[in-house]
Amino acid sequence: MEKTGGSRKKPLKRKGATEEPQEAAFVKDGATESEVQPPKASAFPPGFSISEIKNKQRRHLMFTRWKQQQRKEKLAAKKKLKKEREALGDKAPPKPIPKTIDNQRVYDETTVDPTDEEVAYDEATDEFASYFNRQTSPKILITTSDRPHGRTVRLCEQLSTVIPNSHVYYRRGLALKKIIPQCISRDFTDLIVINEDRKTPNGLILSHLPNGPTAHFKMSSVRLRKEIKRRGKDPTEHIPEIILNNFTTRLGHSIGRMFASLFPHNPQFTGRQVATFHNQRDYIFFRFHRYIFKSEKKVGIQELGPRFTLKLRSLQKGTFDSKYGEYEWVHKPREMDTSRRKFHL
């Protein structure tokens, strides 16, 4: 007897299971996967607020899309403005100067005028006059805080290759008040002390000998030579050039002259080396580069290292004296940092 073939029962759907979505209506018959394009996302409505989305992943996705849309709109407006300027040619209006914190700086009454007779008299009679008159040549002593670690020691050694006629000595529990008379007796003109915290350099004391002044800086963003990408070969023994940027006030002028007095006043241009102290918003960025002449008109630079950033904390008259010293200027954040557009150097 033939078995009667009953109809096969459909498998029961589990509770909560959903059917697979059918192909969208915009897919043509015979189209491959590469030809299928997803629908374009519509623009966000004016009152749309991403912060109201509760789901974290969905909120992050919508924020990414919103940022992409903002970039596209900004690029389209930029291209449109460029075409309009090209169409106008010489009749195009001048480009507006963007507002930055630097060019919106509050005017300082102590800004130095190079033609001022009082400034010229101060330069001729200050502690650095003998250096700029080429009567004395700098001789630098570089030391560290007591019991320094490897990173601070390497920074001192690399600084000695940047600053000519500099010598590194390690402190063995000796106080600075005892080091300074020994430096003066041995004809050192400047003393540099690198302090550290948690095995990282975090401070620099620069004292001009024998009569001061003494500046105390906070040090940050220290990068040794091995930590700098695409750096050049080690520096040579040539005397580098010195570049001082944006030291405009009387205080900044004094700090700039302190840095300049560390290097001999006769740079050897054949070495193509340059040390830069760039002041921006009261942060002093130190960089050490070498010129690379690619052709008669094109010149590149190659960083040699090390690099670091300084922030002036105080300027003291005379040599280092933390207890009885007389301070010319002390940074007081609560009183001085009331405006973002107020700078002191």
Name the descriptors.
7 helices, single chain, 24% helix, Rossmann fold, alpha+beta, rRNA processing, IMP4/RPF1, globular, 345 residues
Report Rg: 33 Å
Mean pLDDT level: 84
The poorly predicted ranges are: 16-39
Helix fraction? 10-25%
What proportion of the residues form beta strands (DSSP E)? 15-25%
User: Whole-Å distance between the termini?
Assistant: 109 Å
By CATH, the topology of the domain at 110-337 is Rossmann fold
CATH architecture grouping of the domain at 110-337: 3-Layer(aba) Sandwich
> Main β-sheet: number of strands, strand sense, barrel status?
11 strands, mixed
CATH superfamily caption of the domain at 110-337:
Brix domain
What would the principal axes of the Cα set say about the shape? globular
Order of helices and strands: HHHEHEHEEEEHEEEEEH
Instruction: Give the total of beta strands.
Output: 11
What structural class do the secondary elements suggest?
A: alpha+beta
The helix tally amounts to 7
- Classified by CATH, the class of the domain at 110-337 is Alpha Beta
What does this structure look like?
- Residues 138-321 form the Brix domain.
- Residues 1-50, 82-101 are annotated as: Disordered.
- The protein is an alpha+beta fold.
- The protein has a domain at 110-337: Rossmann fold (3-Layer(aba) Sandwich), CATH 3.40.50.
- It has helices at residues 56-88, 117-125, 129-132, 150-162, 176-185, 250-260, 333-336, and strands at residues 140-144, 166-168, 190-197, 200-208, 214-223, 241-245, 273-280, 283-293, 299-303, 307-316, 327-330.
- Strand 6, helix 6 and strand 7 (273-280) form a beta-alpha-beta unit.
